[in-house]
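From the shared-data thread, chain only:
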Amino acid sequence: MRSDRKKPKSDLRNYYTVFLQLGMVAVLLIFIVAMKVEFVAEKPNTDLTEEQEVTKMEDIVQTKQEETPPPPPRPQVPVEVPNDEIIEDQSIDLDAEMSLDEPLDMPPPPEEEDDGEDFFVAVENMPKLKGGLAGLQKQIEYPEMARKAGIEGRVIIQFVVTENGNVENPRVIRGIGGGCDKEALRVVKKAEFQPGRQRGKPVRVQYSLPITFQLQN
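Structure, as C-alpha cells:
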C-alpha cells in the first residue's frame, strides 16, 4: 500500500525539470518578441503650411522742422539833443610878424631815463686787449681734472672795462666745467685793456672774451 502511494509523487518530480525548462523557454520567447516590437508614439498632425501673419512695414515720413526767422530788430527811437551850445570862432592872425632873431620857445628835451647801468655796450672806440687774445691764451694752465676727463671747449667771460682799462666784475656766461671756468676767470682778471672811448673820452664799456681750452694730441 505504501509503495503504491509514493509512485505518483515520484512521477511528478521527474517532470519538474521539464516544466522548468519549458517555462524558461517561454519567458525567453516573450522577451525576444517584446524587444522586436516598435513602440511608435503618436505624433500630432501639424500642418506646417498654415498661413503666417504678414506684417507690413509702414514708411516713416520724416518731419522737417521749419526754422522761423528771428524777429526784425526794433527801430531806434531818435533822441533829441539840445543844440543850444554856441561854438566860438577862433580867429587866427596870419598877418602877425615873425622875428627870426628872437629865440624860439621850444620845449626842453626829454630827460634820459637812468636804467641803473653805468656802462656802455657799444661805443665809438671799443676797448682793446693789450697783448692780444693769443697772449692771454698762453697764460692758461689746463686744469688736471679737465685733462683727465678730456674736457675741451670755450668759456665765455663777460666783464666791464673801466676808464682805466681794468677788468671789473668778471663772470662766466658760458662754461664747460672741469675747473676750466675758474681758470678762465683767473686769467681774465689779470688782463689789461686800452679803455673804450666815446666822443674822445674814456668810458666804461661792457666786454666779452672767449677763452679756448683744447687738448694737444
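Residues 2-35 form one domain.
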